[in-house]
Amino acid sequence: MLLAACGDGGAAAPPHVIVLSLDTVRADRLGCYGGDRSRTPNLDALAAGADRYLSCVATAPWTLPSHASMFTGLFPFEHGTHGFRVAEYVDNAHPLHPEHLTLAEGLRAAGYETAAFVANTVYLANRFGLAQGFETYEVRRQNAARMTDRALRYLDDRDPGAPCFLFVNYMDAHRPYGMAPASELARLPEEEHPAMLLERLCERVMLGGEAPGPLGERVSDLYDEGLEALDREVGRLLDGLRQRGLLNGALVLVTSDHGEAFGDHGIVEHGKDVYESLISVPLIVKRPWQVQGATRAEIASLVDVPGLIAGSIPGTTGILLRRDFPRLPGDHPVAAEVHFARPRELLLYGERFQRERTALREGRFKLIVGAGGMELYDLEADPDEQDDLASREPAHALALRSRLDSFLDAGRYRGERLAPSPASAAQSVELRVLGYGGPK
């Protein structure tokens, strides 16, 4: 029965699982989360007939640890896939250890075809271990249109007698925003080139200590343009699923690995801290045969992705997967972590980002612990995290700190820490193109 045909022929068949990871998309830029609805009509339409989690917290403000959490159901302090301190330029990220069970491995063992099409050529490259369990794992930096084309070709070529797990990573909201062809970017004057404008904003805010001003607004607009192009292609992928008779009975999950900052808290881009602009991400889950949407108030995390998927798979397969991936929104503490900075920050910003910071969400409150002590925010009253309550509510802050420490101590990864394999010449170029720095 597990290997029965799985088009839109019956709810008892194991569903196709489609996971879309919208790299660098912060929740508040989607219309269904309060952003400009003209930018994301397709994602908003999907959310209208799905479960939309009002609050989803990325486990880290950058790609590798967050995707490791999506795939394993573990926080970075549990899976050990995160950054580490160095005194000079190096690709300072631990790969995912093969001892960890991934969602793709679990689904493949259950008879699923597993395929991933990935546009992030740096921290989703094979050398970081996230290909575990995927029969097909293609990494190529290209725009959303080409990513959608590739995913649709896979759907046409796959074995129709088996359910599929399809993972697609889009990069159009990541630097340099929009994934325009190099030939097109080369024709732009320097003052209009997205990467150059972003460099100027980084210098203004993180080196000069100035407010982002009109330059920040211009860069933010470019980000929205990339998001608009991304939404258009997500819509085309969903239409392609519908035309092939695959959408209604599939589980479709849309989320992001982290957000993006445009000057708030003295930060531009991502990977540097655990403020909301960097870790508040969308989570939209359309269950098989779902037609009516619902808003979910439980605080979700990227560690819930495997459990949410397992919960929609019927029979023994679903039971076994739920044992392996038990976490669901609302039934565990929710944390976000940053362990030091990426290569760019090592070169340009010195000690400022050579630090570890951890956030704990509990109801409307958020505690941040790390360099500089503790910060406490009431996110309902202060969503931009401007009013630190820690000095005025020390008992509350200390109580949250105690719960966070207990959570971290109980699950801390104590296994082998893998060293990253050296980047190839092409991968070093990609590091620079995507804003992670490195010597030429």
Question: What does this molecule look like?
Answer:
The chain is an alpha/beta fold. The protein has helices at residues 41-48, 63-72, 76-79, 103-109, 144-157, 182-186, 194-207, 213-243, 276-279, 305-310, 315-324, 343-348, 394-411, 425-433, and strands spanning 17-22, 51-53, 56-57, 113-118, 136-139, 164-170, 251-255, 261-262, 268-269, 280-281, 283-286, 294-296, 300-301, 334-339, 356-362, 365-370, 373-378. The chain has an 8-stranded mixed sheet, with helices on both faces. Strands 14-15-16-17 form a 4-stranded antiparallel sheet, with helices on one face. A 3-stranded mixed sheet has the order 10-3-13. A hairpin with a 5-residue loop joins β8 and β9 (268-269). α5 (144-157) runs parallel beside α8 and α7 packs across α8 (213-243). The longest helix has 31 residues, at 213-243.
